[in-house]
């Protein structure tokens, strides 16, 4: 059974998984709505992996909290804090998955989280007992008797002092593993950004090729239009120069036709 510290560590790790999922959904929404592109198989795989990570972590947290309630929690307020943090994680996951309801490329219904009823732990009320008999005691010794040095977290300090060298080494290794996982999350995010940048670069190259073809087509049409305009100007010039000769020939033909008809 996991302890309180392990559950808190898993809760923090799940928050990072939710941040990663939020980033993936935001990039996916930008890809579909703004760039009007279809998500690739790698994009769908990144989304599915993020969903599975969150679901797996939520299942672990829920199971550990339920086991903690059955075996007895260290303090009711600590237990309620764990339950509250779990509820926040679940609500955030539910909100993120609701944004994927209209996604036609991934069936979000397959990645629902089955939330169980977590037992509540009641905090016992404080009772005050009164006595008719009042004992006269000196206040100064009582203060000195109950005085303790101030510490930020006595439980953490006591647990740290009670740890052996192998336990401290194992805890340090666990922290290194957690840092490696966080670095892995950052690496995946950078890789997705790089993949999107390459994809956008390819789209820009395709648009540049289309613009170059369009420019060549416009230049070719302009050349043909200039050639036709020059030919039309030449024809009009010839008509102006030979207009009188054509008129004489036409009138002569008309005169010959009239003479033939009248005779």
From TrEMBL:
This is t-SNARE coiled-coil homology domain-containing protein. The chain crosses the membrane at residues 243-262. InterPro entries: Syntaxin, T_SNARE_dom. GO terms for cellular component: endomembrane system; SNARE complex. Residues 173-235 form the T-SNARE coiled-coil homology domain. Keywords: Membrane, Transmembrane, Transmembrane helix. GO terms for biological process: intracellular protein transport; vesicle docking; vesicle fusion. One of its GO terms (molecular function) is SNARE binding. It comes from the Eukaryota. PANTHER family: SYNTAXIN, SYNTAXIN-8-RELATED. The keyword Transmembrane helix applies.
């Amino acid at each position: 059974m996991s302890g309180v510290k392990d559950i808190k560590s898993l809760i923090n790790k799940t928050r990072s998984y939710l941040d990663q999922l939020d980033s993936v959904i935001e990039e996916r929404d930008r890809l579909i709505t703004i760039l009007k592109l279809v998500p690739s198989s790698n994009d769908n795989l990144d989304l599915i992996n993020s969903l599975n990570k969150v679901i797996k972590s939520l299942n672990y947290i829920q199971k550990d909290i339920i086991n903690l309630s059955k075996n007895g929690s260290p303090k009711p307020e600590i237990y309620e804090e764990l339950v509250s943090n779990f509820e926040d994680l679940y609500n955030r996951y539910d909100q993120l998955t609701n944004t994927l309801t209209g996604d036609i490329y991934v069936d979000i219904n397959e990645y629902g989280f089955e939330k169980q009823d977590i037992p509540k732990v009641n905090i016992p009320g404080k009772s005050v007992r009164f006595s008719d008999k009042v004992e006269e005691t000196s206040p100064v010794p009582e203060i000195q008797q109950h005085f303790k040095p101030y510490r930020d977290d006595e439980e953490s300090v006591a647990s740290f002092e009670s740890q052996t060298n192998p336990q401290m080494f194992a805890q340090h290794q666990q922290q290194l593993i957690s840092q490696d996982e966080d670095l892995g999350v950052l690496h995946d995010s950078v890789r997705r950004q790089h993949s999107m940048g390459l994809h956008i670069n390819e789209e820009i190259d395709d648009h540049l090729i289309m613009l170059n073809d369009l420019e060549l087509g416009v230049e070719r049409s302009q050349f043909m239009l200039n050639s036709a305009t020059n030919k039309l100007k030449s024809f009009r010039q010839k008509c102006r120069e030979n207009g009188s000769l054509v008129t004489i020939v036409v009138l002569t033909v008309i005169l010959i036709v009239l003479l033939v008809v009248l005779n």
